[in-house]
Amino acid sequence: MTGSGGKPPAAAVTREEYAAMGYGERLRLKTEQPELYRELAAR
């Protein structure tokens, strides 16, 4: 399987998951997926 089912990898984070994250988890998200981080942090 190639994972090309039209969905992003399992690393996608919901707003609820982001809200529950601690500082370290948010920092890792910002480093690994800056675009997703910016989208979630702006809400």
Q: What is the subunit organization of this protein?
A: single chain
Gyration radius from CA atoms, angstroms: 11 Å
State the end-to-end distance.
Answer: 34 Å
Number of strands: 0
As a percent range, the share of helical residues equals 55-70%
Number of helices: 3
Tertiary shape: globular
Q: Structural class, please?
A: mainly alpha
The low-confidence runs, each spanning 5 or more residues with pLDDT under 50, are none
- SSE order, one letter for each helix or strand: HHH
- Main beta sheet: strand number and arrangement? none
What does the average pLDDT come to? 82
Question: Strand percentage, roughly?
Answer: under 5%
Structure description:
56% of the residues lie in helices and 0% in strands. It contains three helices and no strands. The longest helix is centred in the middle third of the chain and has 10 residues. The model has no long low-confidence stretch (mean pLDDT 82).
